[in-house]
Design a protein that fits this description.
elongated, mainly alpha, 4 domains, single chain, disordered N terminus
Amino acid sequence: MAGTSLVSASSEYSDTLLQVCSQLPPCQLTEEDLSQNPQFTKLLLEVSQHMDESGLSVSLRKELDEAEEKLRLQKKAWLRSEVVDRLIHEMLLEYRVKLREPGLTSEDQKFYESLEQCSLVSECSRMLDPTGPVTGEDRPPLLGLKTRDLQGYLPGKQDLLQMRDRLHREIEEQLKRKCFSLLCFHQPEANGDSEVLKAAKASRLAATLEDEKRRLCSEKEKHTEMMGLLEKQRSTYPQVLLRCLDLLRTLAVQFRLQSQSETDRSSAQYLETKCTALFLKTRMEELQVLTGTYTSEKVEVHGMIRDDLQRDIQVLEQDVQSCRQILNTYEILGPEFEELVKEYTHLKQELQYNKWALKELGKSSF
């Protein structure tokens, strides 16, 4: 039991160390590295108490967070004032356009004139600010004018109060229209909704856009990561293909070409054996045809016929031999004998013709 508890305690200690190392700046350590370097492990534990995962000290991180919060608040205030200022400029531009159209009431004209005077005084006051924009050093006022010199160009107190009250309502209306326009652009299906439903959706629009922005940033990071992996694969795949080609070339040279002669020899032996088998099969078929065609009786008869033909051939050969001897004897007699032979042949032909004529005469007499 004690051994088991020691093992579990050491395992928990190692897991704690790995977790601490993962919270530090890029520090890829394994359990084996930590176990082999105990002093370095102790140093990491001490450092982790004074640093965060970005490498900053705890106090500096706190100051940085406070500065970022102040910057966020100032940026928010600046954006608010910038939005109001742009809305006022748009209202004044619309007023200048409406001046060319009939239907502008005296109350509206008075409101816009008071607003334009206040806007001009405010802009001139910013230009006359004696404080430097960056260094904060004092500088002489522009044209020798000061801000109090412009107070006389403001409208009367009553007109100023009325303009301020209406300005709040006008800015609210302008902001509501812009929010609804932005909502309809982002969600076209909201065009047919009521103002209450549009207002409810517009109140959630900032959170929705923030979620979409985070999702878009996440997708961009994933896309960047995937592009990095793709580039790695593009550089890795050609090398793998080249290694595969080298292996294929080696296999072709060492195995295919070396075994080709043996394969060709085996193929030649196979074809030779197959041709011998086909020849023997053809001979067997021929013998079977001959055996079926010539039975023992036919063979015996053929043997008898062959014997008769042999005897006839022998007789003919003897006749030919005797005729040759006679011809040789006649050739010895000379050309006179040839004349006698021709005459004998002519007489024999006339005798045959006369016999034929007598025979025909005998047929005609009947």
